[in-house]
Amino acid sequence: MKKSWLGIAASALLATSLLLSSCAQGTGDTGATGTEAAAATENTGASASTAAAENTEASTQGSAQDKSPITLDWYINESWFQSPEGNLAHQLIQDQTGINVNFIAPVGDPMEKLNAMIASNTLPDMVTMGWWFAEVQQLSTPDYTYSYNELDKMAPGLLDTLDKKVVNWYKSDDGNTYCYPCNSVSPADIDAGLRTNRTFLVRKDIYQAIGSPDMRTPDGFIKALADAKAKYPTALNGEPLIPIGFAPFTTIGNTSLEDMLLEFLAVPREIDGLYYPVVNGNPSPDYISWLKTFRLANEKGLLSTDIFIDDRTQIEEKIQQGRYFALLYQAQDALNPIGQLYKNNPDSCYIAVDGPANSKLDPPKLSVPGYSGWEVTFVTKNAKNPERAAQLIKWGQTDDQGQVALYLGQEGVTYDMVNGKPVIKPEVADLKNADMGAFKQKYNTYNEYWMFAKTKNIQVWQPAPVAPFDQYAEWQKGKSTFYGEYDNVAPPADSDEAEIGTRVNNKWGEVLPKLLQAKTDKEFDTIWQGFDQFKKDNNYEQVLQYNRKKIVENKAKLQ
Hints:
Largest sheet: 5 strands, mixed
Strand order of the largest sheet: 2-1-3-12-4
Structural class: alpha/beta
């Protein structure tokens, strides 16, 4: 999940039921077992039990609610989003609300599609997109979308299903809230055991064969990559081994080499009292040193050309084939290919280890979503029936209705009540671990419709992780950090600051690969200095001043 030029890590409960999401940025399900539910406090456990037990009854209450058949078009601004029809979760939405949701995902560049719809006034009934895009500010006006205050009048009680702190977090200058996120997180969630989605992964067999080296330092990192390539020149399928892999490179950079790397290096978001984004060339000396380390890796033939051109689908294929030795990646984004690799070659699967660290070898400070969550949902002024859209949101946000249906599913079919707690059936959990495609086609529960995902429920209902994901969960303990005050600081899309940010963002997308492919450190320095000058020439400081003003406001909201 790549952030916009603001570069704030959402790290969602990425796409699927994330560790916190798929966007985004998280908690969620990290592999499933049908034998036990995740540990929870007595009160939250009782709440989950009540919600599950009352699901069927609650869905039949409220006879005044309109449940006549209707289709709503819901645009999800993610090209990877898939919504097979006929699965249990989709059918439960229709059975309990009367609404057939026609999910729409873009083909190609999502932002081009979204902006074209905005410009032509052809937005569908509902829209979901990452909170970090400047278009969120643009759509958060009565010209484009209904406020949640208005939606609450159409579906009385809707606001009661939402977290009041989050509603306030998204409040616009006019006093209204126009969107609401999935997977919102508070510092209390971290205290309750919420885990980050960030990981540094290595192939277990290769890592152990080269002596389980310390990869926290630049020298140790380079040596480990070189040793892995020398000892295992080819992967499981006979193709060349790729020593290190990242998230996809895009026109605006690479999240593995921006926010993720900075978090592994424990670089603070504010340096000498001033905030700097986690994209567009953060000035931290440790960060620059590690980018130069990757440059050296490229000079030594340890960066495959594939990493600069592969999209997410190709990366997942290579993960399933064990093509990478190491991965700076969000584990939850790769659950399916990792699960398949583990099933076929358990000794060659990936394990989480300590990765790049700063010069003091401080532990990493890895993000989880903040109050901003992962992706936000709007009801547009083009909605043919905004009342029904409001009812759908209310249903999806209600703990004993949509929350149960979309995560647990249907009692007796996907889960059973065991000692007063909902427990996912073993066969359902096994299918999800073994064949995600078949699971989505048949059930699609576990918050695969993550637009409604609530962290507090996921923490209670998610099954305990199984191998290999249990090892990731153990490694992630104690590494989660709340960066919520730095979220949601984007200027409106039509502002001067946004235009500057777009220019700098796109330039960074050009510069980052050049930095890694520079022939020498001197050439790297020249490119870096040129980019710094580009930011000065384009008055990037104006963008930073806007960001810093918003952060002051955010900190006030969090008090």
